[in-house]
Amino acid sequence: MTVIRFELAETERFGARLGLWPQWFPSSALAYLAHTDLGVSIRALSRLSQCHPSTISRQISRWERLRDESLIDEALSRLSLKPLAIAAHDKKKEPALIHVMPPETSCLPDDQTFAAEARRILRRLSEPGAVLALASDMEKGVVVRETEAGTTTRTAVVERALAQALAVKDWIVCAAEGRITRYRITAAGRAALGELLAKAENHAQGFAEGQVRFDSRAAKGGARRAMVGETPLMILSRRREKDGELFLAAAQVSAGERLREDFELAQMVRGASYDWEALLEQESQPARRKTAPLSAEAAADRVAAALLELGPGLGHIVLRCCCELEGLETAERGLGWSARSGKIVLRIALERLGRYYVSLGERNKMIG
Questions:
Q1: Which of 208, 126, 240 is nearest to 172 (CA)?
Q2: Domains of the chain by range and CATH?
Q3: Where is each DUF6456 domain found (predicted)?
Q4: DSSP reduced 3-state for 145
Q5: What DSSP assignment string belongs to 76-120?
Q6: What is the pLDDT of residues 323-352, one digit of tens each?
């Protein structure tokens, strides 16, 4: 039987004594659970965390108020602590050691999964007009965004457990309640996204798996950071022709978003670095791997297949603008193209990419 130990006699900070609890889980929330579920006194928690009792008291009061928000209440209810044993016989003294039965580990994503998924979802929520829509009776929610044409497009699918974790971290906040509750990214969420993107860059160097080679462009220190906010595809989707028609059709925008989704899922493998541009120069299709459809490896294979379907040129501009989120001018300079040629080539590439995804039938659906 696995237990979590709260050793009140030790001087280490409370947040460092989480045992099986992932590091992303707020230590103040765990203190709240220990107080409400186990009856650990504020004075004992104060000694353990090396904080003043008034600080612990304010933290507990804050989490009690936060439980009015349904996602946070769901998360804390699922994580209820259950005492296994208390090693203290003298009732006049605080317990010296408490063994705590942890909740189901499936309730809490591990640190690596949380960082990768939070980065993916927060990037989508940082886009203008994006919200996370979550129904009370559904295990998954969706990130949706209004398009220039007045329609809504789904850009990501979110597991309910991850949405609860984002709410606990104060990275999303309820914007509208009802049968379907909508959440928006907070200022803390935007700041966290910047940190997550920076950490991802620090781990970007390494060797790829299977069919792709070491990403020499990243290794040379080339700027690869994707901007946060409006993407080149979103900006271009608002442009109109002289007759008032949108420059990009909804199906073309959807195809670019579909490729970007797989691209982001492919980055969830720690240390993976794919040299997609080198892949475009290959003359033959790489060997297909046996992978689970929802795995990061399968997403990487789908990106490779789509880029090879487009080939050099079309594949390069889609990769840079839709996946790596380079601006059109930057992409044109990087590819050695003449000014203002990129948007025309991108439109042609998206049209072809859209036809490719349609040819896949059911496999065309966004995974999320």
A1: 126
A2: 4-106 (no CATH), 109-189 (1.10.10), 203-368 (no CATH)
A3: 225-357
A4: strand
A5: HHHT--EEEEE----TTS--SEEEEE---GGGS--HHHHHHHHHH
A6: 888 888 888 888 899 888 888 999 999 999
